Amino acid sequence: MFENTPRIKRMVFDMLKLTKSKRGEKEFWAADTWIFYLISFFLLNLFVLGFLVVLNNDAAASTEIPKSLEEFTIKNLLSGSCFSYTDEGILSSRIIDLIKFTSDNLDRCLKPGKPHKLTLKFNSEEISITTQNWIKGRQATERFPIEEVLINNKNEISKSDLIIEVQ
Fold it and tell me: Whole-model pTM?
C-alpha cells in the first residue's frame, strides 16, 4: 500500500520547488512594470472614446430634425387638426380642408415667431395665407420645396401644390 511513497514524496517536493522558483515570475514581467499600465490605460481610454463616438452617431441619426424647425412645424400643421379635413369626426391627415385654410387658423396653430406664407396651387387657382407679421412686398428669406398635398374643395378631393415661404 505504501510502496509508492517515495514517488509521491518526490512529486510533492518537485511541486514545492516550482512554487519557490523565480522562473515563473520572469514570464509575467510586463504586468509588473509601469509601461504596461500606461499602455493599458491608453488602450482602455481609446476603446471607451470609440464606444462613445459610435453611441453619439447612433443617437444623432435617430433624432434627426429637418433642416429648419419652421419646416418641421409646418409639416406637423398639415398632419394635425389645423387645416386637416374632418369627416364625421374622423381626422384625415394630409388632406387640407379649404374652409379651414385661413390666416386666422395659421396664426392660431403657429406660435408667434418668423412670418410665414403658405400658398396652395390647384387647377388654375392660387390661394395664399400669411401670418399677421408677414410684411407685404418684402422677399421671403427661405422657400421650401413644393410639396404635393390633397385638398378638399367642396367635398371634392384633388391634388395641389403647397409652397411654404418664411421671411
Answer: 0.53
Domain positions in the chain are 5-62, 69-166
pLDDT confidence of residue 41: 92
108: left (phi over 0), alpha (psi -120 to 50) or beta: alpha
Q: How far apart are CA 78 and CA 84, in angstroms?
A: 6
Measured between alpha carbons, how far is 88 from 79 in angstroms, rounded to an integer? 17
Three-state SS for 6-72 is: HHHHHHHHHHHHHHHCCHHHHHCHHHHCHHHHHHHHHHHHHHHHHHHHHHHHHHHHHCCCCCCHHHH
Torsion of CA 58, 63, 66, 71, to 10 degrees: 180
**Which whole number is the average pLDDT over 110-132?**
84
How many of the other CB atoms lie within 10 Å of CB of 149? 16
